[in-house]
Amino acid sequence: MRTALVIGTGLIGTSAALALASRGVTVHLADHDPEQARTAAALGAGTDSAPEGSVELAVVAVPPAHVAATLAGLMARGAARGYIDVASVKGGPRRELEALGLDLTAYIGTHPMSGRERSGPLAATADLFEGRPWVLTPTRETDTEVLNLALELVALCRAVPVVMDADAHDRAVALVSHMPHLVSSMVAARLEHAEETAVRLCGQGIRDVTRIAASDPRMWIDILSANPGPVADLLAEVSSDLDETVRALRALQSSDEDKRKDGADGIEKVLRRGNAGQVRVPGKHGSAPVAYEVVAVLIDDQPGQLARIFADAGAAGVNIEDVRIEHATGQQAGHIQLTVEPSAAPVLTAALRERGWSIRQ
């Protein structure tokens, strides 16, 4: 691929443009807000000047509601050899394009499964998609050359191609992205008017659950408006689970021993279902559950602490499988949780203690 046109210079469009430009592709940038395109160009994502003639691939990175109209305009003027969009829903835009009577052999819907809580070109990075799934939804009509262009884009962004049916994709993202975002927002909403003394007790658990609730509501209205049915179906199932859980909790308040037992059984049931679902979330080594141990170390909020602890772990010959930081509220300290193979945990613990680190039991 030598030339590309990116329409929409938000987080996703600019990140794709940065990746392409860094690998030698001449990228032309366009946006309904020219200032945003100029910002992306200043970051090194390409040029905000219009291409002379057609390009090889046009990447449409606009909200789902505007995908079909944007693609129709590009196709009408022959802007590119191939056309893709990167919207988070796939079935709706394609049906809109079909209704317009367009020749869709040169089009393929795609969706990079990556993002951040921040939006706009200033949040973009060339490595946003590295190692992340990038869904492609070709049909029998899709031109092979266009599919190859889309696959080349995914490779240049160092993502992992996943081929799916468009409607199956929409049901899948409703489950793993859209519905969880709404649930996260609902949990975070409980904090809005909570007493300050309660909020000050927030720990890592509530931070984990509410992290994605910080995203731009306007962007999520666009996303959810394009995929309301599957999300509503899933929330109805969650609502049913919530009703059963509330009844179980009420039973635990009863003075009747049998009712309390039923309540405890109900709570255990939902918690065990959660265990069974959580272990299916793919991790570093795929979807099979892997047993690890966590070594928690007290660290100060000072430059060089993380580099030092990683260096000490490396010197001990221990590979860190995962890492997270649990911050202490209102203090310049916290705990870094180092996830390692079970056999490596005592080795790492002893090595870090020898080097003066405080290990949390």
UniProtKB/TrEMBL annotation:
Catalysis performed (reactions): prephenate + NAD(+) = 3-(4-hydroxyphenyl)pyruvate + CO2 + NADH
Keywords: Amino-acid biosynthesis, Aromatic amino acid biosynthesis, NAD, Oxidoreductase, Signal, Tyrosine biosynthesis
Stretches assigned to the ACT domain: 294-361
Signal peptide span: 1-19
Coiled-coil regions listed in the entry: none
GO molecular function terms listed in the Swiss-Prot or TrEMBL record: prephenate dehydrogenase (NAD+) activity
Enzyme class: oxidoreductase
EC number: 1.3.1.12
Gene3D superfamilies given in the database record: 6-phosphogluconate dehydrogenase C-terminal like domain, NAD(P)-binding Rossmann-like Domain
Domain named Prephenate/arogenate dehydrogenase: residues: 2-282
InterPro entries (alphabetical): 6-PGluconate_DH-like_C_sf, ACT-like_dom_sf, ACT_dom, NAD(P)-bd_dom_sf, PDH_C, PDH_N, Preph/Arog_dehydrog, Prephen_DH
Keyword Zinc: no
Keyword Oxidoreductase attached: yes
Record pathway: Amino-acid biosynthesis; L-tyrosine biosynthesis; (4-hydroxyphenyl)pyruvate from prephenate (NAD(+) route): step 1/1
Family: Belongs to the prephenate/arogenate dehydrogenase family.
Name this polypeptide is given: Prephenate dehydrogenase
Lineage: Bacteria, Bacillati, Actinomycetota, Actinomycetes, Kitasatosporales
